[in-house]
Structure to design on (314 residues):
């Protein structure tokens, strides 16, 4: 088979593989949304994460169908990080509501922090800041006088920690939640928020992969690949000098596609299990059809692996 034909076939089949995953998660998202009659804050937050997850997967699919799998790695990293937050949120029913409240409140505070930075920059150049100031006043008012007592309590905690006047670009809602729980439990309170890395978060949610009979933290398997593209390290691999001639990596090289597909399949399987476990009353048990599709996905992934290997044997 012609090499270009082989590449186009792989691009089509890998995109179909991702479409199936999209449909599986979309079904869960839609069912949760339709059954959230009480407007439960934990379910609503879960839906927000799932919706954002689907947006990123949609972008990855668009890149895969064009063979731009190298560029897709940045979106795959975002998809992975959203997954960890989702799994952390729905880890157990006892803490889910408190986590959701922290996620909502801190997200609003993060908007306040971003607006504050923009206001400072606009003042430096003499631009109008009224709109940003009005928006920030509304955010603080909504937190301080929220109908939800837990949100009001969290806002008082934000003030106590000095988070309201802090640049929050490097802080996360789950780090704040962990510190909040620790401070409530301990008499000696830490003055700072200890940031939680993706590796620690991955460990907290127990996201492991079975490799040769051993459980390995997923973060240790994929994070080097995820971070190389995001941090620009892969740029050096895109250009080689061979016998004095510059050789550039093909823009539609597919070699990095397989590990992304494998990771997304692992993520999909974990999301399905956790969502059905936590929201069993809304979603019911995992259907036999879902298990069959999961088996078919593993078979499809094996075929994609073999085809890609054949494509890059010289």
């Amino acid at each position: 088979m012609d090499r270009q034909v082989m590449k186009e076939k792989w691009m089509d089949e890998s995109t179909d593989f991702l479409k199936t995953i999209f449909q599986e998660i979309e079904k869960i998202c839609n069912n949760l949304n339709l059954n959230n009659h009480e407007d439960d804050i934990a379910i609503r937050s879960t839906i927000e994460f799932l919706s954002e997850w689907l947006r990123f997967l949609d972008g990855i699919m668009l890149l895969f169908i064009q063979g731009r799998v190298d560029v897709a790695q940045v979106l795959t990293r975002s998809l992975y990080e959203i997954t960890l937050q989702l799994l952390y949120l729905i880890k157990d029913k006892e803490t889910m509501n408190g986590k959701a409240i922290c996620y909502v409140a801190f997200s609003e505070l993060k908007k306040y922090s971003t607006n504050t930075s923009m206001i400072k920059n606009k003042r430096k150049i003499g631009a109008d800041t009224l709109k940003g100031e009005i928006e920030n006043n509304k955010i603080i008012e909504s937190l301080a006088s929220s109908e939800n007592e837990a949100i009001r309590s969290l806002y008082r905690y934000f003030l106590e920690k000095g988070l309201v006047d802090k640049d929050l670009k490097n802080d996360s809602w789950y780090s704040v939640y962990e510190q909040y729980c620790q401070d409530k439990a301990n008499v000696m309170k830490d003055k700072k928020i200890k940031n939680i890395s993706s590796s620690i978060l991955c460990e907290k949610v127990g996201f492991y992969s079975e490799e040769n009979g051993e459980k390995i933290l997923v973060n240790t398997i994929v994070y080097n690949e995820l971070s190389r593209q995001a941090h620009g390290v892969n740029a050096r691999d895109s250009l080689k000098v061979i016998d004095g001639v510059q050789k550039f990596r093909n823009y539609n090289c597919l070699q990095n596609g397989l590990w992304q597909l494998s990771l997304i399949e692992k993520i999909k399987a974990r999301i399905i299990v956790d969502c059905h476990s936590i929201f069993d009353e809304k979603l019911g048990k995992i259907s036999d059809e879902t298990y069959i599709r999961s088996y078919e996905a593993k078979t499809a992934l094996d075929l994609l692996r073999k085809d890609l290997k054949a494509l890059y044997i010289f």
Observations:
- The chain is about 70% helix and 5% strand.
